[in-house]
Amino acid sequence: MTYVVELAAAGDAAEAGGKGASLGELARAGAAVPPGFVVTAAAFATAIEAIDPGGALRASVESLPAGDIPAIARVAAAVRERIAAAPLPDAAASAIAPGYESLGPDADVAVRSSATMEDSSAASFAGLQDTYLGVAGLPSVLDHVRRCWASLYNDESVAYRRRLRMPERDLAMAVVVQRMVRPRAAGVMFTRSPVSGDRSVVAIEGTWGLGSALVAGDVTPDSFVISKITGEITSRRVSVKDRIHSFIPNGRGVTVTGTPAGLRDRPCLTDEEIRALASVARTVEAHYGAPQDIEWAVLDEPAPAAERIVLLQSRPETVWAAKAAPPVAAPKARPADHVLTLFGKPL
Amino acid sequence: MEQDGFPLPSQIADVPGAENWRSMYQYFTRFQPDDDKRFWFYNSMHFPEPIPAFDSITSEVPYQAIGANTARLFVFPTTLGIEHRIVNGRVYITANPVLDPAEIGRRAEVFGPRAGYYYENWDALYEGWKERVRGLIAEIEAIEVPQLPEWEDASVVFESKGVAQNHYLQENFARCLALYSKMWHHHTEMLMLGYGAYVVFFEFCNKAFPEISDQTVGRMVAGIDVIMYRPDDELRSLAKLAVDLGVDDLFTEDNTADDVLGGLEARGEAGARWLDELAKARDPWFHVSTGDGFYHHHLSWNDDLTVPFTALPGYVAAVRAGTMKPRPTAQLVEERERIANGYRDLLNSGDEKAAFDQMLGLCRLVFPFVEDHKFYCEHWFTTRFFQKIKEFGALLARFGVIAQADDVFHLHHTEIDQALADLSLAWSAGSPPLGGAHFPPIIAERKRMLKVLRDWSPPPALGPVPEGLNDPAVRMLWGVTADRINSWLHPDPQEMHGVAASAGVVEGVARVLQDVNEIGELREGEILVCPVTAPSWAPVFGKIKAAVSDIGGAMSHAAIVAREYGMPAVVGTGDATKRIRTGDRIRVDGDRGTVRVL
Fold this sequence. Notes:
By secondary structure, chain A is an alpha+beta fold. Chain A contains 11 helices and 13 strands. By secondary structure, chain B is α+β, with helices and mostly antiparallel strands. In chain B, strand 9, helix 17 and strand 10 form a beta-alpha-beta unit. The model of chain B has no long low-confidence stretch (mean pLDDT 89).
């Protein structure tokens, strides 16, 4: 059984989960991704078989009525407790140890859930499972891997699966462990406008420090729209960003502080950084051949912007992809007929 | 002013001290009671200052031609013509839409084949057009202003011509007006169809790429080899020639045009060669106007050599320093294709790509005309026209009807016709013309009123806000859109809004120039703030780091040139020249179309 794969080698979503596989593919596509490894779905499977040998527990989850929130909460809590209480299978723990050590002595890491059905273009699981930032020391890493496993049974996740009538039996949770980055700014970007669906622009949202401030809705981010073709920044909205999320080294997690007055209403990205992000976005989009929704961070280092960008996630854009856009215009017998059509009806 | 909206025409009060402004303009230019029901906007693009009495011909005649073209000649389905009114010396206009679907359908049947004929034969028709307009220019230049000698020339008798010179006073004056009118009919002959092609492509791009900026659409359309760059190119060549011939020492900031020309005459063969080349460049390229050709004081480079000779020292210095760069035309063409292909590749289907190709192709077909017609019409013809009228003014001044030649522009053309009748009678009778007692006080009063009216801030628009704007010229040229109307209604005291004409953000020191003749004041690296720019402003763009104008849309001159120079520009701000002072630090945001005083 392979319990741990290097992030750069992760490619199979059934093994590394959606997030792990996509990070691996990102790395192979040439994007800078923080180094790390994936605790595979097999590790979870081994653990859950030990906890729920006959599958009765999972069957009880699957039989929950979709709308019965109190029942879902009761059953899911019981499952989470069982997972959190069970020790990690030895084989998994001993595979994780060298992987963690390879990231540096007592490295601060992010421990991120990577469900095997997460991030498919058909259904967005975004944000339903747990991610832990600023974890350090092997025992704590192992503990957080278990917590990620347990988060597969978060009330909302279970409710979501029940709504979509997804089977519980083959469900698994991989876990990504990645070295923490210390970004100057971070956020998300879409390779098409989330507002208009325009595919000629990259829409970027960002804030100071860790992107968790933005994902958690803790700040109103700055937003920028840049043309893929001309590189013009066609829209910039700079917000007052009251709070900064940053991690405290040595495994003490994330802290939320007030933004220094001088930074609060300053744009969190320079034009050079915006252009560099757009360029990365185009590369990633071209690699996948479809519009993407990307989490990014810009590191605080003395280097050109293009070398300071790391990507933390990329998934297919789902909202506009689902809409069928009617053609804007069709060719006509003579080019001038377009003018006739325009003026032939009231504008 | 109304609480929510623009003032009504009937609510505009006379400017104190200029209550008599109506005496300068024809009765049919005045607002009528029913005009309160319609939306009017101030045509600050063409009429940024109060118009002298004669100059009102530059609204009277063009609107006859434009309306005839759209309403009667091509029969545009959704629009009739443009109506204009003058209040306090400013021109307000409104487009007459056709709203009844049945009527639109009826007009569309006529419009289709007529417009189709022009689009399909565009290049050949444009060649013929150039011939016709050059013909009009030759005619206006050839018109003789009778000098009313003591006795007629003997040939009138011995060749039995039989008609004395005073007859030709009114005939030839009327001929000037007639040629001006014909020029304007040709001006609009192809222009409205040209704008139609633009509107179609802009609409397509806005639908396919909702976030695309007008400036980017403009960059896909823009032609590279258009004659608006020629006058400036000629200056660059002349600067290089001066250095090659070793006469460049004469081109200093302190030397006037006359100093330089005099100096060159003393330089033997080298000087003579440069003067030869100058003479070649002057005809026709120095017929470029320092303005947009809507005021008599918009002179051509030929009329006043100040502008070209102010630009030459800088170009000479650049040639000496080896920093004179020719326009990177190959690079500009490549960039234009890269952008167009970039957007084309993003389209969803082969059908959309084919439609895009057709529309862009149509725009590029019409672009040379849309850009170049200005040189022939507003510049070359119009500056010759005003000079010819000024010759009539010189004649009237010589006979004491007016004090000086330029005063003729403070008389309406119907009044000039009266003055010429007076002069004709007086010359034939052997008595002094009576106009000498009649006109000078009127002219003095009008000059005084124009000064007073200059300080009036015209509302950007009047009357109820319309639901739709469907005149191609209104949208493309004046940039009047729903967004623009909204920013007029809700002004931000800190910030001016205009058309984001060329991308980028810079801060710098403003230099407010009312007139291109002031370009000598401009310092390297300043931000130009001006009412409107025309091709003769081109030398300015080598010196500045951003441009702001009161007037103009995404396809206006300043916008096109700024994009070529890659500098931020915001055009169509409405009143930047009033709100910004020379020396102010300002931020020009060419991405968002805003200008802020810091």
